[in-house]
Please model this.
Amino acid sequence: MPSPEPGGAGQRGHDGRRGHRLCRSRLIFTSDWALYNQRANKQGFWEITPEALEQYAPLTAQSMYPDAWEQAKVGGKIYMLPMNYKEIYGHVFMVRSDLMQKYGITKIGSMEDMEAYMDAIAQNESGRVPLDIGSDTDNRLFFDYIVNQRRRRENLQRH
Model:
């Protein structure tokens, strides 16, 4: 949004026109994990008013879903343009075809196939890790999913 600081209003901008100008240094990325709430509470951002949105970002103002605006508020005010799309992501497995061939695994088309692959490596390949999930929270949740699915199947087989 335009700068209310001296040098913004009334001076010529990079396009030669008088009025507010938008400086590249005034645009930043922020998010909840980048301390958005803390910085907004300390007046680290300019408030983005509905009037400013209509004037400078009318398409954004119209296309944003209402929940996004609510989630962006800190103390009842908006200091950032929220993401206006749903994040879509997926998990993929990377496997070694040489190990698949070595243990007679012809395809991985289900969770059971993946578990067979990981079991073969865990039982026969000393020093190899069949699944490296790193430290990403989503990956840990996915690992929990695998473990819980296996436990459910085992419980069903016992009863």
User: Anything to note?
Assistant: The radius of gyration is 26 Å. The helical segments are 36-41, 50-56, 58-63, 66-72, 97-102, 111-124, 137-158. Residues 1-25 have pLDDT under 50 and may be disordered.
